[in-house]
Amino acid sequence: MLRTRLFRPGLLHAGALAPFLVLLFLVGLSPALAAELPPFPFFDTPEGLQSAYREGEREIPYEAHYFMQGDTPVLVEGRIFRDKFNLAGSGRKYSATEFHRNYQNAIEALGGKRISTSQYTREVVAKAGGRQALEQHLFGAVAIPDYRHESYLLTAPGREYWIEVSTGAIPLHGYVVVLERKAMEQSLGFLDAAQMKQALDRDGRVALHVNFDTDKATLRADAQPVIAEVAKLLEDDPALRLSIEGHTDNTGGAEHNLQLSTARARAVLGALVGLGVDPARLQSRGFGQDKPVADNGTEEGRAQNRRVELVRL
Q1: pTM as predicted
Q2: CATH: 3.40.190.120, 3.30.70.260, 3.30.1330.60, 3.40.50.300. Which one for 193-312?
Q3: How confident is the model over 22-42, as pLDDT tens digits?
Q4: Phi, psi (5° rounding) for residue 147?
Q5: Strand pairing of 242-247 and 282-286?
């Protein structure tokens, strides 16, 4: 048996509860979910099982994990809890079916819904750039057709949780990954126009860490202050011309990363033109994963490699 962690929602009298339930019906949330979720990561250890991880190994403050949305692996970033259990150990033994069903029932009781419709076939794995790239961000069972992966989405006002339950053999193991989606708190520093100019005068280039949607060339709202400082840099120096150059880490295929970095550089150029910068002063290009400035073997290194550089022309 799998239990969600105990919680005690606040009390509502009958008169206040009626309109609240109408609102829940309209937005499609269950009363239990909207009132209060159990503490993250929601689930106690299944009855009779023991975690394969030591204390402190199960939570990762910020990482990315692939979840199956329909028949497509989607890379989602945020706070991660992961756990692993030996289902055929000396304690309470579980079949893969029972393990999955326990988590499915618990997730649905919280208002979550299954979003996956496929397993990791060769065609599906290819969508994520191949198994090696995929498994850099996969904390459950490995990505092969014989291993079962189920993804769920749990939402509440202002919150979004992605859950993957997977099983693999041999021996039979069960895995659960719970991710609270959120943007990373930027720790690389913010350069203003004056600091950008100093770097350009000194080195001829400056690296910016501009936030985009995961695996897309869509600028996030928190990227706008950086773009505004670049526009100010160009306004303060009318003779300055820049090449906007996109770079990625090595997650995914090389061709995909080249296309992504090119599109992101163009997105920055387009945003600057939208702020009134003369397009004749700008050009853009992408280099993909070919010019790392840090170790791609760590999340900190990959974060530094995902960058946009301004290069003086």
Answers
A1: 0.56
A2: 3.30.1330.60
A3: 333 333 334 444 447 888 999
A4: -100, 135
A5: parallel
